[in-house]
From TrEMBL:
<protein>
    <submittedName>
        <fullName>Cytochrome P450</fullName>
    </submittedName>
</protein>
<dbReference type="GO" id="GO:0020037">
    <property type="term" value="F:heme binding"/>
</dbReference>
<dbReference type="InterPro" id="IPR036396">
    <property type="entry name" value="Cyt_P450_sf"/>
</dbReference>
<feature type="region of interest" description="Disordered">
    <location>
        <begin position="1"/>
        <end position="37"/>
    </location>
</feature>
<feature type="binding site" description="axial binding residue">
    <location>
        <position position="438"/>
    </location>
    <ligand>
        <name>heme</name>
    </ligand>
</feature>
<dbReference type="InterPro" id="IPR050121">
    <property type="entry name" value="Cytochrome_P450_monoxygenase"/>
</dbReference>
<dbReference type="InterPro" id="IPR002401">
    <property type="entry name" value="Cyt_P450_E_grp-I"/>
</dbReference>
<dbReference type="GO" id="GO:0016705">
    <property type="term" value="F:oxidoreductase activity, acting on paired donors, with incorporation or reduction of molecular oxygen"/>
</dbReference>
<keyword id="KW-0408">Iron</keyword>
<dbReference type="InterPro" id="IPR017972">
    <property type="entry name" value="Cyt_P450_CS"/>
</dbReference>
<keyword id="KW-0479">Metal-binding</keyword>
<dbReference type="InterPro" id="IPR001128">
    <property type="entry name" value="Cyt_P450"/>
</dbReference>
<dbReference type="GO" id="GO:0004497">
    <property type="term" value="F:monooxygenase activity"/>
</dbReference>
<comment type="similarity">
    <text>Belongs to the cytochrome P450 family.</text>
</comment>
<feature type="compositionally biased region" description="Low complexity">
    <location>
        <begin position="27"/>
        <end position="37"/>
    </location>
</feature>
<feature type="region of interest" description="Disordered">
    <location>
        <begin position="480"/>
        <end position="507"/>
    </location>
</feature>
<dbReference type="GO" id="GO:0005506">
    <property type="term" value="F:iron ion binding"/>
</dbReference>
Length: 507
């Protein structure tokens, strides 16, 4: 088992640049390989930059190249996978022959060797360490914290008040991660964390595409803002770890990480301290906390924000949801983990929101060896991308793909089922697939359903007329410029206008 992160973390940072990989059978020599057709890379650039909803550009690629397309982008060979069978084959069957793709290579400057970005044995050992804190009975114990955090956040809400709902959801989910995973009360700092992360997302969104490396080396104001936000978060995370180290250990994940790091230092696994006094073992804790803070809050906050917006635009679906919540959530303070099975419609609303606006909208991988896919050879070092946004809206796999129809997830027995819409397995993958599937999946469903049920019991936020909500395709798919809404109490506001309707009316 690996006891410390890979040693190349102590070498000069590669600035996220991948190592040049060559096909193993022809070392040092360029190879000529046949490649599937695809759009010119310049068109992808223009498509992503100019399209009204940038990820929708991948739908256009799927339309012209329904299975596999190839293009050259910034000197890279990029393969776009648009068919679920190929996505399954790559991520599941060939999972061991891949490493993470470009976005996560880039975001290493922030997350270091955390679970999201690390590879190989170090990744596997970290996953074994972290996973138990995000499963089973631990979720049951987190449920009351999630419900309380939602009620605390809404304590300051008033009918008619205008708020940025995306920021509200971020502050709420930061507080939940702080208390459940780090045993730390982050409520006083949650807005600060959410804002710094927001700036990071903006900064990274402009620096994701191949060729944008230059942007990170040129001293622009945007770059300075990005690095300042990284520094702010870094200071906050280190302070939080130091504070937690001084308190008695508890059942939280940060305690587990601190124990593991003390163990690694004891067995000589954490190498000597660097100039800043930080050992590899210390850095490993910092990287994991930063990863869980980012991955554990931003995605769920985005899913909730999109769900609110879609409910506001679809009064029939909102009424359908409210009927369930009013029947099940008689007293929000007493909502528990056991109630999750009684809230299939709430879960369906989230599933449908993540279908239309998947917080993780693109998955990337780099091949470590030559990979055969659909009759083509993808040479080692190729970039493979697939867009959940495109797969989730592809008319080949979904009826009425652009409609918000949460009832499509409810079976004839009234229960929620991920396979109920009848799509191929890999046509719906908000949490990814294969060995690197989201480790926080159960946490996210628990939090998303409980928070939505708690808040929708009383509130029906409304986007002001005339305000256009547009997705920003950053690391996650978040509403560009936030989500300004007017808070409306359902009992006194237009929430009443929603007519009660059964699930069939929404199919
Ligand atoms: C709606 C909420 C969420 C969505 C949509 C989501 C989505 C994803 C996706 C798509 C991946 C795979 C990325 C890839 O294959 O490249 C992933 C990985 C990950 N997620 Fe989530 N996530 C959510 C919530 C969470 C939560 C609540 C946590 C932690 C508490 C979390 C922690 C992680 C971590 C650590 C990984 C890396 C796992 C690994 O590589 O082994 N996520 N997530």
């Amino acid at each position: 088992m690996a006891t410390s992160p890979p040693s190349d973390r102590t070498e000069p940072r590669e600035d996220g640049q991948p190592r040049r990989l060559r096909p193993a059978h022809l070392p040092g020599r360029p190879v000529r390989v046949a490649r599937p057709p695809g759009p010119p890379g310049a068109l992808l650039y223009a498509g992503l930059a100019l399209h009204r909803e940038p990820p929708a550009y991948f739908l256009r690629i799927a339309h012209r190249h329904p299975r596999l397309a190839h293009l050259r982008l910034g000197g890279e060979h990029v393969y776009v996978l648009s068919h679920p069978d190929l996505v399954h084959e790559l991520l599941v069957t060939r999972g061991r022959d891949l490493r993470k793709g470009r976005t996560l290579e880039r975001i290493r400057m922030l997350l270091g060797e955390g679970l999201l970005t690390s590879e190989g044995e170090w990744h596997r050992s970290q996953r074994r360490l972290v996973q138990p804190a995000l499963q089973g009975d631990r979720l049951r114990a987190y449920a009351p914290v999630m419900v309380r955090a939602a009620r605390d956040r809404a304590a300051g809400w008033r009918d008619g008040l205008q708020v940025d709902l995306a920021r509200e959801m971020s502050a709420l989910t930061v507080a939940v991660v702080g208390e459940t995973l780090f045993g730390t009360d982050l409520r006083g700092r949650s807005a600060e964390v959410a804002d710094a992360l927001g700036e990071l997302m903006d900064g990274f969104s402009r620096r994701m595409l191949p060729g944008a490396d230059l942007l990170l080396s040129v001293p622009t104001r945007g770059r300075a803002r990005l690095f300042a936000a990284v520094d702010r978060l870094d200071t906050l995370v280190r302070t939080m770890i130091a504070e937690r180290r001084d308190r008695p250990r508890g059942p939280d994940l940060l305690s587990t990480l601190l124990d593991a790091s003390a163990g690694a230092a004891g067995t000589g696994g954490g190498s000597d301290a660097g100039a800043d006094g930080e050992t590899d073992a210390d850095a490993a804790v910092r990287d994991e906390v930063m990863t869980l803070l980012l991955a554990g809050h931003e995605t769920t906050a985005s899913a909730l924000s999109w769900a609110w917006w879609l409910l506001d635009r679809n009064p029939e679906a909102a009424a359908w949801l409210h009927a369930e919540i009013d029947a099940v959530v008689t007293d929000p303070a007493r909502l528990t983990y056991a109630d999750l099975d009684r809230l299939p419609r709430t879960r369906a609303v989230l599933a449908e929101a993540m279908r239309l606006y998947p917080p993780s909208w693109i998955l990337g991988r780099r091949t470590l060896v030559d990979v055969e896919l659909d009759g083509w050879t993808l040479p080692a070092g190729s970039l493979c991308v697939t867009s959940q946004y495109a797969l989730h809206r592809d008319p080949r796999f979904w009826a009425a793909p652009d409609a918000f129809a949460p009832a499509r997830w409810i079976g004839s027995d009234g229960a929620f089922g991920e396979g109920v819409p009848g799509q191929p397995r890999a046509a719906y993958l908000p949490f990814g697939l294969g060995a690197r599937i989201c480790v926080g999946l159960g946490f996210a469903w628990t939090e998303g359903v409980l928070v939505l049920a708690t808040l929708a019991r009383r509130w029906a936020p409304q986007v002001p007329p005339g305000h256009r909500v547009r997705p920003q395709a950053a690391v996650t798919l978040r509403p560009s410029g936030g989500m300004p809404v007017v808070l409306r109490e359902r009992s006194s506001g237009p929430g009443r206008r929603h007519r009660e309707q059964g699930p069939d009316s929404l199919r």
